[in-house]
Structure formats: C-alpha cells, structure tokens
Amino acid sequence: MAISVDAPEKSRDLAQQQGYTFPLLCDSNVEAIRRYDLVHAGAGEGGRDISRPAEFLIDSTGTVRWVHLTENYWVRARPEEILEVSKLLK
Amino acid sequence: MKRINWPLWLGFLLSVVTFFSYFAVFVWYPITRDFPWANLLLFALSAVLLFLGVRRAFSGDRRRSKIAAAIVATLGVVVIAFFLFAFFVGGRMLPASKGAPQVGQKAPDFSLNDTDGKAVSLNELLTTPINGAPPKGVLLVFYRGYW
Hints:
The complex is a heterodimer.
Chain A: E1 2-4, H1 8-18, E2 24-26, H2 31-35, E3 39-40, E4 50-51, E5 54-59, E6 64-68, H3 79-85
Parallel strand pairs in A: 1-2
Antiparallel strand pairs in A: 3-4, 5-6
Chain B: H1 6-24, H2 30-33, H3 37-59, H4 63-88, E1 111-113, E2 119-121, H5 122-127, E3 137-142
Antiparallel strand pairs in B: 1-2
C-alpha cells in the first residue's frame, strides 16, 4: 500500500487514472510518516511537510525485511527490484 | 538583409525542449530516468549550438545581434543549469531518516484513512486473509504525493 500527505480525493483520482488496486492511505497530519522518521520538512506546496520517498517490505509477523531509502528523489525503487526482494517473504 | 542566427535559436529551443522532455518522455524509461544521460547529451548539443550562435553574433558588427545573442544564450544556460541543479543537487536534499525502521525491526503500527475514508491499520493488513489465504506481507510505499 502507498502513503502520502495527499487528500483522499487526490489519491482516489490517482488510483483511478493509474488503475491501482492497492490501498492509498492519506496521512495529512504526517503521523505515520513521522513515526517512520520520513518527514521531509517544508518540501511540499507552500512549505508543507511531506514524506520523503521510502519503501519497506514487511513480513506477516510485522518484521521489516527490506528497506529502500533513496539518496535522490528522482531515483526510486524499480518494480523488478521489489519483485526480487518479495521472494524474502515465505 | 538580416539573417537569422539559427544556431543560437536552435540551441535555445533545444535547451527548453530537453528540459521538458525529461518529464514528458525520458522519465517513463528506467534507462533514461535514473540517470538522465539522454538529457545530458541533448543539453550538451544545445550548449554547443548556443556557443556557435554567440560566436557568430560577435563575429559580425551588429550591436543589437550581440546583445540579443548574449541574452538568449544566458537564458539557455539558465535552463540547463536549473535542470542540473534540480536533478543532482535538489534531488539529494533529503532528510537523513536515521530513525526509520531497519531490517529485523518490528514495523511500527499505524492507522490511516483510505480513499473511501475507511480506517486501515498495518496490523489489519497483515492479518486480513487475501482470497482465503493469510497475507505473506505488506509493501509500504511512502511517496511525496501530488498535492
């Protein structure tokens, strides 16, 4: 699932446009983003706090199995990379 | 008759087109997205054209052509510099995130609303069966958002 500070309507449009079927969660108050220490202070529209890009693979016991924190936000994890690491899940 | 300084204008046009081409075209292909080599090549070509255009204007004796060439070439260089800065410097301005959950640690639980306003928690996603089978895990993707 994907998390951002976007409003639910914005995320709904995105999911419809792109055909996403996974949940898009709305973290307007940067609660989960803060708990995961991913706050990119003032980087949003009008100096609003947003999330930095980050990907976590969590197994069924709730344990983190893989983390990707990009060094450059133009460069993100690729789908092939995620399919490869998803083999870590039994 | 006044002749158009085509290397100058072509160079400027190419710098602008190259700037937008990253977002319109090259961002869709992993090979040109993660490192913008296609844009760098096109920017290099536009820089050469701008240089040729400036040289051409300054080899003549028309003062207005020289001023125009200097302005257009500067604008072209600004476009190129802006892209390079945004990609190689701006893109790296990210928080350290030293407190982010690491491999082997428990992922902190949270509950957020989905696009239908329904609360969804991480624990719930990890335990709710999918097609009758327990889920193997969850991929969490935090993204900057589109605002």
